[in-house]
Amino acid sequence: MPRYTSLRRAIIVAIVAWIVFAFVLPPIHLEGHSMEPAYHDGSYHFYWRQSYLFSPPSPGDVVAIRFAGKKVVLLKRVVALAGDTVAFENGVLFRNGYPVQEPYVRFRSNWNLKPRKVRPGRVYVVGDNRGVPMERHHFGQVNSNRILGKVIW
Amino acid sequence: MKNTVLFLLVCGLLGTLAYFFLHSSREEQVRCQLDRFCEYVHKKGNEPPLDSLSRAVRTGKLFSKPCQVYFDNPRVEGRFNRKELVRRISLARNSFTLLTLSFHDISIRFPEDNRAHISLTMRIRGHLRGGKSFADVRELVMGMEQADGTWLISLVKEVQVLER
Lengths: 153, 164
Description:
The complex is a heterodimer of chains A (about 150) and B (about 160). Chain A has about 150 residues and is of the alpha+beta class. Chain A has one helix spanning about 1-25, and strands at about 25-30, 45-50, 60-65, 75-80, 85-90, 90-95, 100, 115, 120-125, 140-145, 145-150. Chain A has one helix and eleven strands. Chain A is elongated and about 70 Å long. Chain B has about 160 residues and is an alpha+beta fold. Chain B contains three helices and six strands. Chain B has helices spanning about 1-40, 50-60, 80-95, and strands spanning about 65-70, 75-80, 95-110, 115-130, 135-145, 150-160. Chain B has a six-stranded mixed beta sheet with strand order 2-1-6-5-4-3, covered by helices on one side. In chain B, a hairpin with a 4-residue loop joins strand 4 (about 115-130) and strand 5 (about 135-145). Chain B is elongated, with a radius of gyration of 20 Å. The termini of chain B are far apart. Classes of the chains: A alpha+beta (about 150), B alpha+beta (about 160). The interface between A and B is medium-sized, with 20 and 20 residues.
């Protein structure tokens, strides 16, 4: 009888773990240096799937962005919302014409990008590691429906 | 009467089974071609020149004549014949000492019997000749056409996820 109880508990734990890690708090294994120094290559994190059910992303949030599916995701920081204007001048981010304080950015290089407006239904995302040439860094505006959740740990 | 109903039921069952068998076998064939592409592009360590050439030739045979290619970065756009595609893929492979290509989240539709529409995430990892590590992820839409029983890649198009 106790054997069956243990088995039942193990099954329940497995089911709960599957629900939590598949639908609520999926884990991510980070590969790449685009979010350094806050997020390191090879580190593990979790994102909260329900973060944006009732409210849109805010500037400063680190979000998981999907590609064709959910197996490979991109980790980026939201820097501007729909309707905002974004630009880079000598590595400094400008939102709506004003420079943005970004304490999470340690590595900067001479990025220059002309002002552009974030279209409706989109947010503007950039990685924290601005030390690489702009051409080699994936950033830009992304459709909000590609955002899977907020990275919470 | 009973026999007729039974006969119709058996026919229906066989038809359903045949549909699923054919459908899955088509999908398997397409997946198999994608696996082959990854296998041929893969590179580990010092590759003998003859091996590189053989892989290039086999890679070329996976594409239709011509194949449409659209990439944003680097900007590549147009219809390419096998020779040109092989030349470009070989050039790209030569800039790496180690190279791994993998496809994830593959979804396949068949709008027509001999045409497949594929959506997937492509992941490239490796080491460049200079010693630097390289990693890139792209979302792609691919088209495949069946010619003489073989599925050939007829379209490769990058989906723009992030727009500057």
